[in-house]
Amino acid sequence: AQSVTQPDIHITVSEGASLELRCNYSYGATPYLFWYVQSPGQGLQLLLKYFSGDTLVQGIKGFEAEFKRSQSSFNLRKPSVHWSDAAEYFCAVHGSGNTGKLIFGQGTTLQVKP
Amino acid sequence: NAGVTQTPKFRILKIGQSMTLQCTQDMNHNYMYWYRQDPGMGLKLIYYSVGAGITDKGEVPNGYNVSRSTTEDFPLRLELAAPSQTSVYFCASWGGQGTEAFFGQGTRLTVV
Questions:
Q1: Residue A49 burial (CB count, 10 A)
Q2: Using one digit for the tens of pLDDT, what is the confidence trace for B50-88?
Q3: Under an 8 A CB cutoff, do A49 and B105 touch?
Q4: Whole-angstrom Cα distance, residue B34 to residue B48?
């Protein structure tokens, strides 16, 4: 069965510092992978997605993620964090093919210090 | 193009009451999902559908039911509401490989 683990529940970084949010998945084949962001009281916004091809994926707001099959990981990165990036971040996995399920990790809350 | 529309936005139920959360999408997506979001728990998949007439259980289906009679609609039914069902519910739809999943704005449900 597919699953997603986000090991870091809460991360605090200083504004301007680099950021890496971890995501590990479990799935028998290459899954479809997503990162979403949710601001307080808001819905979910897609940051980026991976289906196939180039393992380094560029997204919106200066975010990128790298798919590493050998590590079953899809970590999210940003070179310089802005105060407006403070939010909750979710990694999600969908089994390729027609399995149907779209499973989310428990989320990482990002706090940005001025 | 409205995307995914959920109604209602807020609801208070008494224990034992029932209700239906409505979800409609206008993107002709085959895949549709219902999630609940509790603080610190992320989004848990309740039920999903891969097309009209086809539904399946997700991670936390107990206490809920769904139907998918049309491509557009995917209502979630709560029978005999319990306090443990107090949560924020999100509906989503997905068009398949190469596309993103779109989410509704959520329904905040409180069971008292």
A1: 21
A2: 999 999 999 999 999 999 999 999 999 999 999 999 999
A3: no
A4: 6
